[in-house]
Design brief:
The protein has helices at about 15-25, 75-95, 110-125, 140-145, 165-170, and strands spanning about 1-5, 30-35, 45-50, 55-60, 70, 75, 100, 130, 150-155. The protein has a single domain, classed as 3-Layer(aba) Sandwich (Rossmann fold), CATH 3.40.50.300. It is about 35% helix and about 30% strand. The N and C termini lie close together (about 5 Å). Helix 1 (about 15-25) crosses helix 5 (about 165-170) and helix 2 packs parallel to helix 3 (about 110-125). Strand 3 and strand 4 (about 55-60) form a beta hairpin. It is built from 5 helices and 9 strands; from the N terminus they run E-H-E-E-E-E-E-H-E-H-E-H-E-H. It has a 9-stranded mixed beta sheet with strand order 5-6-4-3-2-7-8-1-9, sandwiched between helices. It has about 170 residues and is an alpha/beta fold.
Length: about 170
């Protein structure tokens, strides 16, 4: 089973993923991304990756100098790959887990090894996957995943976001 979650930025995709990880507990392997906010101003200043093992690292920031840019955020691929790649490699080996990939977006897709692992994971018929993708096809891989045969695509809206965790749990 492949469950693909989409929706506009800030609608609650990561919140939904975190609820699912909480409900599934140690049956999950993967990661989610979350905003990093300035404590004083509350303004977003970057993004961090958080693994289901509890490891965290900021991988995109307004203060990072990088050739990989999304808006005003510099992306440090090594920081992202240091956490994302090992946990996704583990996901390929542990067939009894639910693989969580939040998100398959512009920043993450700069990484070629990440793209290759994601492709292997989503095409493995033995794996159950919960992944978030952008509304728009920001990369050919996103378009490919969106059209994945047998996948269930769910769009998060203000109207449905409070009960989607129950619906996804029924699917998986």
């Amino acid at each position: 089973m492949k469950v693909l979650i989409t929706g506009p930025p800030g609608i609650g995709k990561t919140t939904l993923v975190r609820k699912l990880v909480e409900r599934l507990g140690d049956r999950t392997v993967g990661f989610w991304t979350e905003e990093v906010r300035d404590r004083e101003t509350g303004r977003r200043r970057g993004f961090r990756i958080v693994t289901t093992e509890g490891k965290k690292k900021t991988f995109a920031s307004r203060t990072f100098t990088s050739r990989y840019l999304v808006g005003s955020y510099g992306v440090n691929l090594r920081y992202f790959e240091d956490l994302a790649l090992p946990v996704l490699e583990r996901a390929l080996k542990e067939k009894d887990k639910v693989v969580v990939i939040d998100e398959i977006g512009k920043m993450e897709l700069f990484s070629k090894p990440f793209r290759e692992l994601v492709r292997r994971i989503v095409y493995d018929p033995r794996l159950t996957v919960i992944a978030t993708i952008p509304l728009r096809d920001v990369h050919p891989l996103v378009a490919e995943i969106r059209r994945l045969r047998g996948a269930v695509l769910i769009e998060v809206t203000k109207e449905n976001r409070d009960f989607l965790a129950d619906e996804v749990m029924k699917l998986i």
